[in-house]
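Here's my example:
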Amino acid sequence: MTARPGSATIRAMTRILIALALSLTLAACGGVGSRDRPAARPSTPIASNVVTAPNFGDAKPVTGWGGKPPQGYAVHGIDVARYQTEIDWATARANGVNFAFIKATEGGDRVDPMFEEHWRGAGRAGVRRGAYHFFYHCRSAEEQARWFIRHVPKVAGGLPPVLDMEWTPFSPTCTIRREASVIREDARIFIDILTRHYGQKPILYTSIDFFEDNQMWKVTGADFWLRAVAKHPQDLYDGQHWLFWQYTSTGLVPGVKGEVDINVYEGNPIQWNAWLAARAP
């Protein structure tokens, strides 16, 4: 016959069970700001259709988003350029980087020096990858679209091409601010050329000031990728539908040296894979 444990023993056992349950809950939830968990180290490549949970941190975390916080979305990814000089893509993939938008070109004569390395590394690690072009307001949209096409290959399963349109007040050569109607026409031309070449609907990235100044909600033929690093997009963009949301530029991601932009996809993992399948060229 087993002796019944005393009250002190029962309390100790209860504390252990509560602590165990809490640790399992946190491990299951994952999410942004969970950098207290050790970085995952993949032993084998992760298939590109498998969604990994974010094990990220943030150098300047935000609370009180006003709407659904980034932690409430399942599919996270990053965008990178020459500033991210060292990326262990396999580690980043295992820790929640499911997609990456990689800067390819700018204007009509500049190629990001890290583009090819990032492009190859992301592809090898099973990260769904896409390329973006930073628009230069002192060259024609046609010239810039052709420059992008010249340097970004069509690949099976690639993410749609991205047009990044922002004001450029710190550019050493081009700080002009043209009429909103001209800006939108440039976007239309660029988007149309890329649609015909890549066979899928492009994405338009922008920030709140550029969006409002140029009435970018009037642009058609592209999905939106919106920047909102202090509030939810619904509180800044007046109900504009978005496909991707860039929620921080100070993200901390295992495998990425230094801070990096982090983004979320609007839907759940099933919707993510369905969207990828429907948009594949």
The beta strands are 57-58, 76-80, 99-106, 110-111, 128-134, 162-164, 203-206, 223-227, 244-252, 260-265. Residues 32-279 form a domain with the TIM Barrel fold (CATH 3.20.20.80). Confidence is low (pLDDT under 50) at residues 1-31. The longest helix spans residues 7-29.
